[in-house]
């Protein structure tokens, strides 16, 4: 899942660094992720994993790191199964 998230970040995140060089806990907003880009990342994650982010997950903390996205996406995938 982390690899797919990195692919989506590379395509949609508009980061100032290569997402493949980041640690899973690195702050994505510190490396250029904007709120607009985070929406694009969210939409791409929804398409890729066939999920829908609930309102309570639509917060900065969800998209602040690869790990936080992986945790939320993992839970949503499990719930959808």
Automatic annotation (TrEMBL):
UniProt domain Carrier: residue ranges: 1-77
PROSITE patterns: CARRIER
InterPro entries: ACP-like_sf, PP-bd_ACP
Stretches assigned to coiled coil: none
Taxonomic superkingdom: Bacteria
Stated name of the protein: Putative acyl carrier protein
């Amino acid at each position: 899942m982390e690899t797919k998230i990195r692919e989506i970040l590379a395509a949609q995140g508009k980061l100032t660094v290569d997402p493949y060089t980041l640690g899973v806990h690195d702050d994505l907003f510190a490396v250029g992720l904007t709120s607009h880009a985070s929406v694009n990342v969210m939409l791409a994650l929804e398409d890729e994993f066939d999920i829908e982010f609930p309102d309570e997950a639509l917060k900065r903390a969800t998209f602040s790191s690869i790990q936080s996205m992986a945790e939320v996406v993992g839970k949503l995938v499990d719930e959808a199964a």
